[in-house]
Amino acid sequence: MHERVLKVLEFTKVREQLLDHAASSLGKDKIKNMVPSPDFEEVVKLQAETDEAATVLRIKGHVPLSGIHDIRAHVKRSVIGGVLSPHELVQIASTIHASRQIKRFIEEIAEERTEIPILQEQVGQIIPLTNLEQTIKMAIDESGEVLDGASDLLRSLRHQLRSNEARVREKLESMIRSSSAQKMLSDAIITIRNDRFVIPVKQEYRGHYGGIIHDQSASGQTLFIEPQVIVQLNNQLQDIRVKEQLEIERILAELSADAAQHANELQVIVEVMANLDFIFAKARYGKKIKATMPAMNNEGRIALYKARHPLIPMDVVVANDIMLGKDYTTIVITGPNTGGKTVTLKTLGLCTLMAQAGLQVPAQDGSELAVFDAVYADIGDEQSIEQSLSTFSSHMVNIVDILDRVDFNSLVLFDELGAGTDPQEGAALAISILDEVYRRGARVVATTHYPELKAYGYNREGVLNASVEFDVETLSPTYKLLLGVPGRSNAFEISKRLGLNERVIGAARSHVSEDTNQIDKMIASLEESKRQAELEQQEARDFLKQAEKLHKDLQKQMVDFYEKKDSMLEKAAEKAEEIVEEAKKEAEGVIRDLRKMRTEKHADIKEHELIEAKRRLESATPEVKKSAQPLQKKSKKHQYTPGDEVKVLTFNSNGILLEQVSNNEWQVQIGILKMKVKEKDLEYIDSPKQVATKPLTIVKGRDSNVKLELDLRGERYEDALLKVEKYIDDALLANYARVSIIHGKGTGALRQGVQEYLKNHRSVKKIRFGEAGEGGSGVTVVEFK
User: Distance (Å, rounded) from C-alpha 734 to C-alpha 753?
Assistant: First the structure.
């Protein structure tokens, strides 16, 4: 892509915004070098990796990418034998730690059965250099200080250093605390000059302490003297400090050599971390602008739904549908300069460039974009004083360059084509330029205010007229793109609203041809018809959403009902078991007593004792409490026929008989639900017969015709499980005994996920793979309880 086009379409501004979402300089470097790719396979992969990153952000909300540094120069210097500084080694350890964190993070998400193969492949290249990281951290702290524990010698030297410093301070403190010190010292403090401990002595007492003068104050009245009594101790301190520095350099050299041994692994870590930072920066930016992943094609088709310009604030931007490349390859946006046409051009061009760079686009789900070899744009006033070019000449320079390069796999955007010269000649040039680009097979969107180009869209196949809506009442554009509706002049209406004399407007109208007036009226009618159609379409969508919501709510209520029913049956069974158990215990007690009486009285049992035992057995019989309001028995047997209105006793609801499914079962319609009910649970409602055998109105949900199989091939893992969950609910409501789920063989991840879900479903009796004629291991057959 030409850099000028990236600037004109404001792709460079998108890159600048993207920089704010990178976590390291590595990611920012990749963003600065990001350009759209003309390779279809590469673009598909770029979109897939951004989508995987967006999935991770949606699941986890964050990504551990802190602590990444560009350590390539450090590693290179260590390889050639250089000694790295403590801060450079800390950056290496920090980057290793960050790589281990992100590797574990991605692998844990993958283990949760989230399909992120590209990110898994990326982190799979990381070799955790845990030993090198720990070695550096044990020797150097986060602030870059070499620790005492880095070596035994360093620990010993620092212990000596602290002991000697304590002795020096002790001697100096005894000197400055003496009575004579108050008049000889400028201040009773110990300070350091040239890495040696000194005291501030007044000029006139310089000879009292002897020793070495290291510095003097600005006035010359104070000398910083190292007293003779501590010169030897300071010499010892310096000697220890030199040894300490040599040991530190040895430790750093050793750590640098360790880093050099892992140079290749560190280079891979840097490359992977840069890629991951770049990928997640794209995903974070997409989340910020509420973008979605477009479907990509290499056939020149564009279908953007509710597309927005990403650089315009979301609270003011107007979303538009833009279609190109299927039924028509050229769009001519006509109408006066009322604003909105150029934004539409830039939105289309910028979304195309963003998609080819792997960025998600600010449009609704289901949008589609094509991968072009090149995008050309002639937009804006590029008048050049330096080159003595007028606006028209500047545009023609760009257009000539475009015509030299354009081919069938190009997207061309012309803003105010033919402007800046004589209107008649400009319109003629615009038509011929459009014809030439159309002949080469490119996809073209052009804006113009020439009325002659309105006829262009009607006279040529594959060309569509469009316009940007203008509200005459508010004297402002709505920025709404109207595909299929050419633009019209609003000069008379605007002038009238602004108060121009009606007589003047009438005279102006007389100078306009009748054909032009008729065209403007036709365009106004088209605009109104399109606006009305869009309103009705939106109302229909709203009604559909409400119906779908109602259907889902009813399904949920039915599921809740069955769950409560199962729970109540379980509780009843438990209660019955308790009652029977009590009865058994009582009966066993009676039998024991009878046996005891027979043994003790030698079968000489009195009548009243038998009666008492019988009474106890009868009292042990479980008593079933009847409902307070028992269901009324049917007084007579009714011969049911389809269309009869009945009461379903088990649900205490009225319904309509649809058909007899067996000798003692009927299919009953209760509201929007169909279910099988046994004839003994039905009660005929004697009501006046309806003319029709079926109810006049039967409300059916969108999914009322449930198929016996569900095909998941080609579905993403998460979407597939959602479809399985909904399909099982629909199949249960349809009273199916068995269904099939087609998941294919593939890697087996989808099959495993589906079967795991089915095994844990309370209504599933058993599952099995399909037979040879049913699809084998690519199909799971489900039987319900």
Answer: 24
Distance CA 129, CA 716 (A): 35
Report how far apart the first and last C-alpha atoms of the chain are (Å, whole number): 61
**Do residues 62 and 124 share a domain?**
yes
CA distance 589 to 264: 85
Bridge partners of residue 389, in order along the sequence? 384
Q: DSSP assignment of 332-347, as one string?
A: EEES-S-SSHHHHHHH
| Whether residues 347 and 491 fall in one domain | yes
Model confidence, pTM:
0.62
Cα separations in angstroms, 747 against 250, 351, 717, 743, 752: 53, 34, 12, 11, 10
DSSP state of 360: -
Per-residue CA distances from 368 to 108, 361, 782 (Å): 32, 10, 36
Query: What's the helix, strand, coil split of the chain in %, to 5?
Result: 50, 15, 30
Q: Is the dihedral of CA 424, 430, 433, 439 positive or negative?
A: negative
- Co-location of 328 and 275 in the same domain: no
Residues 6 or more apart whose Cβ sits within 8 Å of residue 189: 176, 199, 200
Burial class, 382, CB count within 10 angstroms (exposed 0-12 / middle 13-18 / buried 19+)? middle
Instruction: List the strands of the sheet with 295-297, edge to edge.
Output: 295-297, 368-370, 302-307, 320-324
pLDDT of residue 582: 80
Q: What CATH number did the domain enclosing 431 receive?
A: 3.40.50.300
Q: Is residue 582 part of a domain?
A: no
Angle (CA) 377-379-385 rounded to 5° is 120
Length of the chain: 785
Statement: residue 376 has pLDDT above 70: yes
Q: Which domain holds residue 191?
A: 151-240
The model's confidence at residue 339, banded by pLDDT at 50, 70 and 90, is: low
| pLDDT value, residue 157 | 92
Indicate the residue among 667, 700, 733 that finishes a domain.
700
- Distance of alpha carbon 283 from alpha carbon 52, whole angstroms: 9
Q: Are residues 122 and 231 in the same domain?
A: no
Q: Do 26 and 73 lie in a common domain?
A: yes
**For residue 433, which phi and psi values (nearest 5 degrees)?**
-65, -45
Please name which of 274, 283, 260 lies closest in space to residue 102, comparing C-alpha atoms: 274
Give yes or no: residues 345 and 446 share one domain: yes
Domain at 744, CATH number: 3.30.1370.110
- Whether 256 is covered by a domain: the verdict is no
In a domain, 457, yes or no: yes
Sheet holding 779-784, edge to edge: 709-711, 738-742, 779-784, 764-769
CATH number at residue 44: 1.10.1420.10
Q: Which residues contact 616 (CB under 8 A, 6 or more apart)?
A: 586, 589, 590
What per-residue confidence (pLDDT) applies to 622?
A: 56
The single residue listed with the structure tokens 């760079």 is 357
Q: pLDDT tens, 228-285?
A: 878 888 888 889 989 999 999 999 999 999 999 999 999 999 999 999 999 999 999 9
Residue at which a domain ends, from 485, 512, 539: 512
| 642 and 508 fall within a common domain | no
In sequence order, the β-bridge partners of residue 414 are: 378, 446
627, two tokens: 């409902």
Task: Give backbone dihedrals phi and psi of 368, rounded to 5 degrees, phi first.
Answer: -135, 140
Q: What is the pLDDT of residues 743-757, one digit of tens each?
A: 887 777 888 888 888
**323 - beta bridge partners?**
303
- Asked whether residue 89 is assigned to any structural domain, the reply reads yes
Q: Same domain for 312 and 415?
A: yes
CA distances from 550 to 538, 554, 654, 672 (A): 18, 6, 20, 10
Q: Match 């039987």 to its residue by tokens.
A: 783
Number of domains composing the chain = 5
| Residue 518 token pair | 């008729």
What are the helix and strand counts (H, E) for the chain? Answer: 23, 23
Name the more confident of 772 and 488: 772
Q: What confidence score (pLDDT) does residue 513 get? A: 53
